[in-house]
Amino acid sequence: MQGHIDKIYVMGGPNMSYTSSLGMEAFVDYPIRPLTGRTWGQKPKMSWPHKSCYYFPKAFPVYRLHKIVSVLLAVLGMSLISIVAFVLAQATAGPSFEMVNVNNDYDKTISKDVGYGALGNTRKLEDHAEYKRSGENDYEDEDGSEADDDDDDDMVIFEEKSENNNYANDEDDEDEDNENEEFDMNYFDNSLLDDPKQSKENVNSDNLDVTESVPFNTPNIRKEWKELPKINFIDSKGRHILEDGVVFTVEVEKLLRDPGMNDSAVGRIQGHLRARDISKIEEPSWDRCGRPKNQWVELLGGQAACARYRYPDDNLLLGEVLSFYLGRLLGIHHVPPVVLSLPADQAWIPVADKVLQAGWEYTSPVVLTPWLKGLKRDRMPSALLEAVMGNKTLGPDGAGKSLPLTLLDEDDLSRLLQWSDLLVFDYITGNYDRVASMQDAAESEQKLDIMNNTIHNLVRSEETGALWLIDNESGLIDAYNLLYGGLDDIQAERFLQFHSRMLQSICVFRRSTMEAIEGLANHPHPEKLLIKFVYDHEPLYTLLPDPLKSDLFVKYFSQRIKETYEWMNKCVKKVAK
């Protein structure tokens, strides 16, 4: 049928309806097809596609589209079902070994953007996850009514004493030792410390393989202090406590039964962590490796470690790595060794399915820290706490507002020796997740007795009395971003004062630490020295953001070293007067 029409009749059930369609030349019927359209005075012609070709009239009834709509809905539904099924399949089954079996030539097999974006994100202190975790309401009076901390480190976790194995302490527990929960660790057998006095039964031949050891050499940056006052301090018991005014004597140094890991021990541990395959991986818990996405891992041979995963906050991994190497430069040998590991490496193949279930990116590095044993939480020495609470300085008697050392027993002297290192270390790194977080809680809650509780991320060996500075990821990078980033000047100033107050609470130091500070303070670029030290010993270091691109790190790392040096020099001059 052809000719001019003004109406198109459409059969729609028992009743007939119509709609107007001007300028159309043909009926529309099923199946829908391109219509012949023309303008007046021209011959009809087929157009496909063309602006004058209409697939259906402008007023075409909607019910005539039901077949098209049905097909589209069916396709959409099948697509959604396929996507859901694929996601579920990936979550329940790991990839084949061929997918992750890459060799050790990371530059050729792994491509990853290691830009500096992670270091540029400045956050407010109260909004930061690590700060929130440290400042939660876990400070209570020492009556056992509440745990001191539910999860303040990733490398070592506490063994719960209560019968129901939950996160709360047993309120009926009257034993003070139960307030300092014991660490249940099984890595650092005594052979790692090269102790010739250890008994043979403590050595497990499977623990370490000499051939796995890697070179580790700490650069010697120490410089001797000149013009120290020739003043010695001997207490009423005849103990020679201080020499050169502010320096702990060799006699006090010998009170520390465990001097820490030498370079050889560090090389053996790092080589072991890098060489062994991962034979087992388990989800973290309150008593093992801490917060979600961390994993407890077991190496071939039975040794254990915690794997820290922080992507996309790799600046936290960077803080952990840099803090360890800074500790080595300062001669502080009780900061646990760290190594970077890549889940895409062949060492992780036996647990590839667990890696996927953990939600890790295969190309995002993790930090492995060895698992320690026989440790428990420790408090601040009473003499130092008295100095902090009284806004005084612990040092030689008679030197201004200072407190004497002559009344301390050997155990307190040994702990104070190590705390002097801790305060120097935390001041330089700006670590807000140890003493500073407790100062913040004590001030915010107006409960000064919080400072008498066990200290965050500080544990003590029950056997040797050595203090281990653990969980240092908030130091240097993240701490500087938070303290100097400028988003919350009030909070930043508070934490700056916390660090200054702790550093200025003590005026006695180890000679090795003073000489290391002297060397770093007089080095033209201490930040480059630290980064080169890391680069020379960590093969995967380039997978992390480059801290030398951070103006905050470059500026304030050297500045805080100089401020530490100035405080030490002030202590020396004060005694000399």
The total of beta strands comes to: 15
Helix/strand-derived category reads: alpha+beta
What is the terminal separation in angstroms? 119 Å
**Strand arrangement, largest sheet?**
6-7-8-10-9
Instruction: Enumerate the spans where pLDDT stays under 50 for 5 or more consecutive residues.
Output: 1-56, 93-124, 131-206
Question: How would a textbook summarize the main sheet?
Answer: 5 strands, antiparallel
How would you state the average pLDDT, rounded?
A: 74
List the helices and strands and how they pair.
Blueprint: E1 7-11, E2 16-20, H1 66-92, H2 97-100, H3 106-109, H4 129-135, E3 233-234, E4 240-243, E5 247-248, H5 250-253, H6 263-275, E6 278-282, E7 295-299, E8 304-308, H7 314-330, E9 339-341, H8 352-357, E10 366-370, E11 375-377, H9 382-389, E12 393-394, E13 402-403, H10 410-429, H11 435-445, E14 458-461, E15 467-469, H12 477-484, H13 489-503, H14 511-521, H15 526-537, H16 551-576
Parallel strand pairs: 12-13
Antiparallel strand pairs: 1-2, 3-4, 4-5, 6-7, 7-8, 8-10, 9-10, 11-14, 14-15
In brief:
The chain crosses the membrane at residues 68-89. The chain is of the alpha+beta class and 577 residues long. The chain is built from 16 helices and 15 strands.
Descriptive overview:
The protein is of the alpha+beta class and 577 residues long. It has 16 helices and 15 strands. It has helices spanning 66-92, 97-100, 106-109, 129-135, 250-253, 263-275, 314-330, 352-357, 382-389, 410-429, 435-445, 477-484, 489-503, 511-521, 526-537, 551-576, and strands spanning 7-11, 16-20, 233-234, 240-243, 247-248, 278-282, 295-299, 304-308, 339-341, 366-370, 375-377, 393-394, 402-403, 458-461, 467-469. The strands form 5 sheets. The chain has a 5-stranded antiparallel β-sheet, sandwiched between helices. A 3-stranded antiparallel β-sheet has the order 3-4-5. Strand 7 (295-299) and strand 8 (304-308) form a beta hairpin. Helix 7 crosses helix 15, helix 11 crosses helix 13 (489-503) and helix 14 (511-521) packs across helix 16. The longest helix has 27 residues, at 66-92. The model is unreliable at 1-56, 93-124 and 131-206 (pLDDT under 50). Residues 137-157, 169-179 have a biased composition (Acidic residues).
